[in-house]
Amino acid sequence: MPKLGLAVGREGAMKRSLMLIALALTLFLIPPIVEKGYYINLLAIIFMYTALAQSWNIISGYSGYWSFGHYMFFGIGAYAVGILVTKLSFDAYLASVLGGLASFLAAVFLGLILLRIKGPYFAISSLVMAEILKVIAINEEWLTGGGNGLILPPRYALREFYYAILLTLLAVTAIAYAIKRSSMGYALFAIRDDETAAETYGINSTKYKILAFAISAFFAGVAGGCFAWFVTYIDPYSAFDSTLALMMIVSAVFGGIGTVMGPIIGGFVFTLLMEVLWVSFPYVYLIILGASLILVMRFIPDGIVERLVQIVQLMGKVGIKIPARI
Amino acid sequence: MIPSADTILQLIVQALLLGSIYVLMAVGLNVIYGVVKAINWAHGAFVMLGAYAAYWLYELYGISPYASAVFSAIALAAIGAFTHELLMKPFFGMRYFRAITLVVTYGLAILLINITRYMWTDVLRGVNLGVPPATIGAISISRPFLYGGLVAIALSILFYLMLKRTQIGRAARAVSESRKHAMLVGINPNVMSRFMVISGAAMAGVTGSLISTIFAVTPEMGSVLGIKAITIVILGGLGSYAGALIGGLMIGFAEASGTYFLGARYQPLLYFLTLLIVLSIKPTGIAGEE
Lengths: 326, 290
Description:
The complex is a heterodimer of chains A (about 325) and B (about 290).
Chain A: H1 11-27, H2 31-34, H3 38-63, H4 71-88, H5 92-114, H6 119-139, H7 141-144, E1 150-151, H8 158-181, H9 183-193, H10 195-200, H11 205-231, E2 233-234, H12 236-239, H13 242-255, H14 261-277, H15 282-299, H16 304-317
Antiparallel strand pairs in A: 1-2
Chain B: H1 5-36, H2 43-61, H3 65-88, H4 97-120, E1 134-136, E2 139-141, H5 143-165, H6 167-177, H7 179-184, H8 189-212, H9 220-236, H10 241-281
Antiparallel strand pairs in B: 1-2
């Protein structure tokens, strides 16, 4: 698979596309003022899945540690908020941030165990870890309400969720971009390409891996926390839902692993698709997810963003004029 | 609570029989890994398809799952051939081959499980042979367990002998060591890897037939068994025949005794924890090299 992501030497283009993202996302501040209903809900859900895909990208896309159990951090965040709000009557916004912190700390701790394990061993271990947490959530009824779940007081409306999750998406995108441009990003890409070689060059791989894992977990946790107070009800099966990991992976792979734009595009495409199909044909949607994963890996392993760039360049070559600055 | 000697014996026999079926499943997965170096995430889905084949043949035509195992094996062999040609071969020689094939077969697992769900829904099915349990001395074993375990043991031994004693087995092991050097001595690695993926998938089909008489047949079993199969081979060490044996028996024991000691609710934790503990001590599994 040639150059997954890291587009060195296209910084101008990257900066432009980033300003475009910032502009687009700023525009998304407006809708709830004029609309309040189905479309706002849809947009908010899209933002949530996109933020999750972007957070997955920070660890798995950049460092090559494919986490199939990343939904565990969504669950930790959701349960942290659920417990803080119902048992200790915390404010939901504060609780969401604390949920993120809980995920962050959990990731530091779990990372010490899991990130020593490499390649496919890591992929399955992360999944197994998530399933362990799910079993604990099902069984520790005094804390988590067991299979009955937790019911949160309904105080916050759609608009609050919309802005909170948009903020999360903006923050995770900005952080993903910042990490990619920093020495940490280069360290992570070096680890992905050859961890032993990276260590030989003096990169403290453990430090960077755990940091990336924890940052990534933080945002997944915040998203889970916001989700918890928005739907006002969480149970082990919706908080620790392995479909979430599938969504993150498919979105990021479709858009382009390791790119900042990729998970955003993938997140939008697949959440919209889910919205169209889920209610009437849930299995068809999952079949499409599975098939997309296969087809994308087979035919556009670099992701759709890379292909779009190539098409634009090709159009330039054959003389089709496109505005220089999109 | 100290269990009596009979209870312990009963648990051991059950664990051995269940473990043997898991060994067969893990050997199928490991055989594919050994030659292709790809972890087939869809292995559990293959087992599930084998179980459905056995269920429908039993339900519609009354064919015993032990007889229809041949059919399951052939059907899954065909699917294995497709998997090899379409989902593994195109990626040979690529840099991130192991990651790519892991993700692609993960996609295949999702695809197969949900197609099954779409066609046959989530209804719990199963082959009920209606035979009384076999009583040997003080212990009584349900017959599907007994027959399934014995068939699995026999097949695992046969396959082991094939790997060690026949020309095909030697060629497969040579490709597993080094594709390039195998080619130098006149072995076509593509033919060998196709053959081994097909045999691995066929073993998954047989495992499915055996399991259809023991567990409920649902689409969900595809993902559960997929994780279980990968857990077993990773626990034992990827690509190692001994690893599959150790891992399969360990998981068999963890399941049989976990239900007894921890109750059904915490039982899944036991083998997950076993995996995490083993991997944090030895990141490549018990018998894994690398």
